[in-house]
Amino acid sequence: MTTAERLTRKDWLDTGLQLLGSEGEKALTIERLCQVTCRTKGSFYHHFKNHGEFINALLEYWQSEYTNRIITTVEQLDNLSDRRRELDRLAAGIDRHIERAIRNWSGVNRRVQLVLKQVDEQRIQYLVGLISEMGQIDEKIALELAIVEYSTFVGLQQLFPNADSHWLEQIFNRFNQMASAYCVALHRKELE
After folding, report:
1. What's the rounded Cα separation, in Å, for the pair 155 and 116?
2. Which of 62, 106, 176, 181 qualifies as a cystine partner to 113, CB 3.0-4.6 A?
């Protein structure tokens, strides 16, 4: 981007997420954002009333891009197995540095903690729906499997922040195969 190009609100938010992922929440100052974008504070204030509004917008943007957009994309597919594969692919491609930074930030910021809790619950509930559809199983068991699956997703982000997205996708796919086999076995047992 050249200095002659006008930054959009989205450009500021993208820059914020990248800074968060690479330098942590302390880098989310107006000064640092302006330095990275080669823009003045006036340009920042053209889009955001103050720093607090920027942080709120950043958290909403992260939720929108990293959760809502993914769910919407996956839901456009008709076939359950296609939806699962697409979810695995998109989840594996999430910027793990940003996700880790959000989790770290939530430890020191109540607003971030509340947004992260909402996102975690939204993601888990989406998995509950997919798992329920996959195995025609009790919602309690679907919730337990969703929690294990989501914990695997979060754990892999923490343990392997630089992992290849293809490798992560394979791990997610392997979990789905195990969960599917479990659901089939459970369903057979109920029929006996």
Report:
1. 15
2. 106
